[in-house]
Amino acid sequence: MFATGIENSYPKVGSRRVDQMAKCGHYERWSQDFDLVEALGIHFLRYGPPIHTTWLGDGRYDWSFADTTMRDLHRRNIVPIVDLCHFGVPDWIGDFQNPDFGPLFARYAREFAARFPWVQLYTPVNEMFICAMFSAKYGWWNEALTTDRGFVTALKNLVKANVLSMKCILEERPDAIFIQSESSEYFHAEDPSAIKPAEIFNSLRFLSLDLNYGRRVDSEMFEYLMDNGMAREDYQFFLDNRFKQHCIMGNDYYITNEHRVAADGESRAAGEVFGYDGITWQYYDRYRLPVMHTETNMTDNAEGTAAVDWLWKQWASVLRVRNDGVPITGFTWYSLTDQIDWDSALRHDNGNVNAVGLYDLDRNIRPVGAAYRDLIQDWADVLPMQSVCLVVPVVRPQEYDEGFAVRRRDTLRNWRARRAPPAAAVATAAEMSPSGRGSDAP
Fold first, then answer.
1. Residue 232 lies in a domain
2. What is d(CA 180, CA 186) in angstroms, rounded to the nearest whole number?
3. d(CA 225, CA 217)
4. What burial letters (b/e) apply to 154-179, b meaning 16+ CB within 10 Å?
5. Which of 138, 293, 361, 382 is deepest in the core (most CB within 10 A)?
6. Which Pfam families does the UniProt record give (predicted)?
7. Residue 415 has what pLDDT?
């Protein structure tokens, strides 16, 4: 699956909403943007409606923009990987410290899945680890906290929202596939005195996916979670609600994903040391899931060579891990167009154009766009023929009502019904829950 994405971050920075779709002109030029996707020969698009203008309250929605754009994607037979929450929440939710976020978001996800039943691929909550770090550990976005307790609370609520939404989406679309885009990080000790803080960071980086996939965390991280506000019943929720079998692990990798850690715990960018292939093996060894390279880019230089060279290097890394035995299912250059102010992680409203897109903001193709188009043409038919046992069972939008797709959904729906607990057990679980709704009820 060769993909790109339309950047749809919308965190709050203080009282200011930073909406990349607005800054980059997508609301006015969405049809042209979809034309550009087709012109590159791309059939998979990371895309999602802006949550802050779509989800107006519990049970209240404005689907107008989503209806228009999703209808056009269906017409074009482009497969969306739907990104429902990308670094922000509507004002009425508050922020990621709100314990009601998870159940409320799950209902939003269910409503989306019911409204657009032909959508199969989802990233319910994008980069949960990064969102929790930037919002509640670094103090940059949303709740702007700088505490371990704030971080744990945000992470717990983000991952719970992701898990509950997977459950709800599967009830609407039993053959849904979740491509969990998450930043793949590594922290290098700068000297022997920095080994311990680097080890802690290297344990923290796995927390979001450990919880998401129902994997027991390491003992040190268990103590960290318990010491910073996670209740045992919260932890048990993640062990009891596992949807790993429906997932592809999305690994995002940029040149900023590796860090040098000092003895006092401060870190700075290390550049590319292990690279995508080395770090992806660490994640694959831990979770043993099919992998997709779900984000990368590079700020281009005046000659237009820096991004092209990075594309070649990332693709070489993908081929290397694939040839060494990792089941790689796709690759993504993110995003379709240049972005604005990501050089300050969206914290400052400088209007700086970041030349990272396949196209610039005037929708002129960049050299990396032409290179990616050629790469897709060269490799699109080769890889599936070499890995027929790893082909993802994707149903294209216009195949939704085809007999084979209907039969598969019916088979999976019946299978899930057979695995459901008896009604008496469900009632008992609901009675034991403090809310009376059950520990995993959306």
1. yes
2. 18
3. 10
4. bbbbbbbbbbbbbbbbbebbbbbbbb
5. 293
6. Glyco_hydro_1
7. 87
Q: CA dist 136 to 8, 156, 221, Å? A: 20, 12, 17
Region of residue 167 (phi > 0: left; psi between -120 and 50: alpha; otherwise: beta): alpha
Q: Is there a domain that residue 72 lies in?
A: yes
Residue 289: inside a domain: yes
pLDDT, tens digit, 9 for 90 and up, residues 202-249: 999 999 999 999 999 999 999 999 999 999 999 999 999 999 999 999
CB atoms within 10 A of CB 21: 22
- Give the CA dihedral 322, 326, 327, 330, nearest 10 degrees: -60
| Whether residue 431 has pLDDT greater than 60 | no
Distance CA(67)–CA(248), nearest Å, equals: 27
Instruction: Give the Cα separation of 47 and 238 in Å (integer).
Output: 27
Angle 87-311-127 (CA atoms, 0-180°, nearest 5)? 15
Structural domain containing residue 343:
2-400
Based on the structure, what is the number of domains in the chain?
1
Beta-strand relationship, 258-261 and 186-189: parallel
Range list of H helices, 295-432: 306-323, 367-379, 382-386, 403-419, 423-432
pLDDT digits (tens, 9 = 90+) for 247-291: 999 999 999 999 999 999 999 999 999 999 999 999 999 999 999
**Collapsed DSSP state (helix, strand, coil) of residue 205:** coil
Q: Is residue 181 part of a domain?
A: yes
Which residues on adjacent β-strands are paired with residue 47?
Answer: 82
